[in-house]
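Explain the record.
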Amino acid sequence: MNGTLFQQGLDLMIFGMGTVFVFLTLLVCSVVMMSAVVTKFFAEIEEPRKDLAMSNPKKPMAAVEPIKLRVIQDAIHQHRKKKQS
């Protein structure tokens, strides 16, 4: 056996960590390159269709009843007052 047990363990650790580092570096590079290729050649630009936009306009929001609005405002006021104390 060449070297001590500690030296062999250190060599094995460096070899293992180096292998993992190289593998992960190659993996990241390949994913970045594939992403660039897909973005460049298969990019889909969706244009809004005017015929659909005109046929289904957004409905306006219903107004909140005054009593509910007052209850919500009071709850927010009490919460903020409690938070400051």
Q: What stands out?
A: The helical segments are 5-41, 50-55, 66-84.
